[in-house]
Input
Amino acid sequence: MNRVSVWQEFNACQFLVSFCLLIFSIFYALREELFLFWPYWLVFLPLFIWKFLGISGAIVGILTYCCVRSRNRERNSPIQCRALFLNLIETILLLLFEILICYNLEQPNDPDYRLTWIVCFLPLIVLSIISVFTYVWLLRHGRSWEIQALFVVNILQFIFFALKLDNSILTWNYAAVFIPLWIVMGISIIFCIGRIIWTCIHYYRNQNQSNSSGQHQLHRHYCQILTSSTVGHICVLFFLLIFQILLVFYLERSIHFSFIVVCLPLYIALIILIYMSFGSRVPANHWWFGLRQDACGWLLHLCPIFETYANIEYHFPPSDSPTTSAHNVSSTAMNPIIRSTTQLNRNLQSTRRMFFQKKSSSCCDQLKVDQGENECLTTVLISPSNILKLHEPD
Output
């Protein structure tokens, strides 16, 4: 079990967004079914927490970037700072959209108090237009662009849905209103299936061409990573498609479902996204809150016990040898085991390294880091033949 890879591939942004959306969707479903009588401002609180962390983290990161001298910055710091600034603008527009939605939901059904829905969706439409240019910039610089692409392809969906809620221009049913979303979901599922087929073809082609076992294992590991993430995205799209179909039936009042039942596929999709955040290979922005490192690594440094736990990797090599009892093992038989274990530990000392280390720019801390380079990833190899089964003799 490799805990190092789990923590190194953890995407804090995806985890935060998916978790806040999950809590919000649960609160909103309970509020819709009148199990909760909270005001909508309290129902939207998980989304407000997400926006608060995003905005405050971006502002602190930008101010920290301006205070640090250029010679002390990392090589790709300007790109990360610009990406953080674009993320700040998008988060502010999303927050404005949520505030307008909450205001409209809290007002009575009186046109003198309520805003039109097209006005409420106006920040989201502006965000979709800005995301077109942001998407191109992020794609050129190799940054994460999935959220921006989501806003770009759904700009027509936002306009259609707002006009349908106003019931002034569009009088279509909801199945026709969701046509842009049907198209996007269909294209996404076809793309993911095609990616899995291409990965399998690439794997079998390299399996036949590779001569050495190292190349074979490398191609196999790469294909497993690519296939697992693609299968996860297909599952997310599948449950989102089911949620969209149930939502259309619910809004049309053709089938009387509880809104909690309608949201069940959405909950499953968000749980899958939370699980996938621990295996995401998306590079994080190191200037968020001015940390200048991964958020996961920073959290581990706050708790040394968890840092030590995260730097331990266990391997259980397969063996067909039987388990030996403690009272049946003589000292002569134990000596080769002890010598082989000692030699194994010596070999590991030369190759092991610490993955989660605190990075600091000061000379004193840098000297400590240089002295601590000998601190290493502790790899414990446990073979079934070396496991002693302790029990009382008969």
Confidence is low (pLDDT under 50) at residues 320-341, 347-394. The first strand starts at residue 312 and ends at 315. DSSP finds 17 helices and four strands in the chain.
